What does this fold into?
Amino acid sequence: MQILKYSLGQLQANCYFLINNKDCLIIDPADEASFIIEDLQRRRLNLLAMLATHGHFDHLMAVSEIQKSFDVPLYINKKDRFLLDRLEETAKYFLDYQPIVFPILKIKNLEFKNSLKIKNFKLKIFQTPGHTPGGVCFYFEKEKIIFTGDTLFKNGIGRYDFSYSSKNDLKKSIEKILSLPKKIIVYPGHGEKTKIEDEKNIVNSFF
It folds into this structure.
C-alpha cells in the first residue's frame, strides 16, 4: 500500500491518500478540493471512500466538493456530526473569512464499528474520544501503521480545551494507542510521522 501525504489549507492539516493498485482511500480530506480532485484524476485513481478521524473543519473542508466529482461516502463517528453541522461557522471563525461549504451528501457512521473492509483495504477502528467526542484512529495491522488525527502527534497531543473535549478521555485514548507494538508508524493529523516507541513517555509529559 502506497501512502501519499499532503498538508493542506491554512492550518496545514494532513490529507492522506492510501493507494492499493489504482484504488484509493482518503483519510481526512482537509481543504483545497480542486487540488485533491486534480491529483486523483492525474493519477487515474479510483476513489472508494473518505474517512474522517474527527469532525473539525480543517480536516473536512474539501469533502462536499469532492463528492460532486466522486460518488463516495464520508465515514465519520456519529458523535462528531454536530461539528459537521457547524463546519462553515467554525471555519469562518478560525480562518477569518467566509468560506463556501456545501452540505456533505453521503455519510456513514463509524460509532459502533471496530473494523472496516472497503474492497482490498482492511483496517481496525479505535474509538479515541478526547479531542472531540467522536474521534477515531484507523489502524492497519498488516501494514503496521495507524492514523491518529488530532489525538496524537509527533511530540504532542491534541487540544482538550474545547467545551466538548475531555482531558481524561484523551489520556485514555492516547494510552490505548501507545499499547500498540512499538514499531508501529503513527501518521498524525498535523506534522510529521513518528513511531509508537518514540512517543511512549508523552503521557507523562502532558498529563
Q: What stands out?
A: The chain has a mean pLDDT of 93. The domain at 2-206 is CATH 3.60.15.10 (Metallo-beta-lactamase; Chain A).
